[in-house]
Automatic annotation (TrEMBL):
<feature type="transmembrane region" description="Helical">
    <location>
        <begin position="56"/>
        <end position="73"/>
    </location>
</feature>
<dbReference type="InterPro" id="IPR025519">
    <property type="entry name" value="DUF4407"/>
</dbReference>
<keyword id="KW-1133">Transmembrane helix</keyword>
<protein>
    <recommendedName>
        <fullName>DUF4407 domain-containing protein</fullName>
    </recommendedName>
</protein>
<feature type="coiled-coil region">
    <location>
        <begin position="155"/>
        <end position="226"/>
    </location>
</feature>
<keyword id="KW-0175">Coiled coil</keyword>
<keyword id="KW-0812">Transmembrane</keyword>
<feature type="transmembrane region" description="Helical">
    <location>
        <begin position="257"/>
        <end position="276"/>
    </location>
</feature>
<dbReference type="Pfam" id="PF14362">
    <property type="entry name" value="DUF4407"/>
</dbReference>
<keyword id="KW-0472">Membrane</keyword>
<feature type="transmembrane region" description="Helical">
    <location>
        <begin position="30"/>
        <end position="50"/>
    </location>
</feature>
Length: 365
């Protein structure tokens, strides 16, 4: 187990074997922090991705990849923080690693906050869904309100036409009755010619009223059918849009609902993960240089010295070889035999060029 956690810390296991037990325990503790931080990242990302994909195997697969990524980043951050002998240089070296650790802490803590406050978030989402349902019903009703209002107005006008005609028929009825009783009109008791004329007007108006009622009844029935169809379409649109509201519980919606909860509760959880994430860096930054750090610095110093020595030797060899070559070619340049040989070769080459030019010209002609 200790060897595994030492591997997680990014330390040189072979070098730690030469150090005391305290150094191994220290780096095993750092490695354990790195491992369990990556494990928490795996759980957090798996839960967050499960709310997105609704598939446990997909969430586990992507969560494992995310946990390994966090593990690799943490291991790199801790393993590259080394003692340099200068406190300010070590602080400057740790600043970008601390910033990266803060970002990782935010990424890890947020999904776990969603799980911890799941019931409170569900309550906030329920209130939002209810409000969205009422708003949706009002908006859909507003879309159909103008048509339904126009149909209702047309029905009211048709009923008013019937009421006006009924008032007219009732007035004619009262007129011919009063004529028969002798209380109005000619004031002669009995059913005379005037009574008969007024009775015919009433009967004609009554026939018109009955025809109007029949006609308007058909029109009113058609308008009421259109109102019913409009309400059915309204209910169908509300029903079709309701699943969208019911499924309003994705990752972004939950994060928004989480932000509506009291700030300090979730902030303390973030501080907890921030402390866990930055503790290995702060521990290495605050702790004095140990046996492992000194031996690692000594090994790196030997490597740097060897590299510098090899570089210097290569530069000396290059300078010496260049000087020797210059002297060799200078001596050769003074030899008459070499001059005669190159002169012979140059003469043969010029002859061949002249022959080739002659053959080419003859071919053209």
């Amino acid at each position: 187990m200790q060897s595994f956690f030492i591997m997680c810390s990014g330390a040189d296991a072979s070098l730690l074997k030469e150090c005391g037990a305290s150094e191994r325990h220290k780096h095993a503790g750092i490695g354990a922090t790195v491992f369990f931080t990556a494990f928490m990242a795996f759980i957090a990302s798996g839960h967050a991705l499960y709310t997105v994909f609704d598939n446990i195997w997909t969430a586990v697969a992507f969560g494992l990849v995310w946990g390994l990524l966090i593990f690799n980043l943490d291991r790199y951050i801790v393993s590259t923080l080394k003692k340099s002998g200068s406190r300010w240089r070590e602080i400057l070296q740790a600043v970008p690693r601390l910033l990266l650790a803060i970002i990782i802490a935010v990424v890890i803590s947020k999904p776990l906050e969603l799980k911890i406050f799941e019931k409170e978030i569900d309550q906030v989402l329920l209130e939002e869904k209810n409000a969205m349902t009422l708003d949706n019903q009002e908006q859909v009703a507003a879309l159909y309100a103008s048509d339904q209002s126009a149909f209702a107005k047309a029905i009211q006008q048709l009923k008013e036409e019937i009421a006006i005609k009924e008032a007219e028929v009732n007035a004619l009825y009262a007129t011919y009755i009063a004529e028969a009783e002798g209380t109005a009109g000619t004031k002669k008791l009995g059913k005379g010619p005037v009574y008969q004329e007024k009775r015919e007007k009433h009967d004609a108006a009554l026939a018109e009223l009955q025809a109007l009622k029949a006609t308007n009844a058909d029109k009113i029935a058609a308008l009421e059918a259109q109102i019913a169809q409009s309400k059915i379409a309204q209910d169908q649109q509300i029903a079709s849009s309701q699943p969208i509201i019911d499924n309003f519980d994705g990752l972004m919606a939950r994060i928004t609902a989480l932000n509506k909860l009291p700030f300090f509760t979730s902030f303390f959880i973030f501080l907890l993960f921030l402390a866990i994430e930055t503790s290995p860096i702060l521990a290495k930054l605050i702790a004095p240089a140990g046996e492992y750090d000194l031996k690692l610095a000594e090994r790196e110093g030997r490597v740097r010295s060897w590299v510098a020595q090899q570089k210097a030797q290569r530069e000396i060899l290059l300078t010496t070889d260049r000087d020797v070559n210059n002297r060799v070619y200078a001596d050769i340049a003074e030899e008459q035999e070499l001059y005669n040989y190159k002169r012979k070769i140059a003469r043969e080459l010029m002859q061949q060029q002249a022959d080739a030019f002659y053959e080419k010209q003859r071919g053209v002609l």
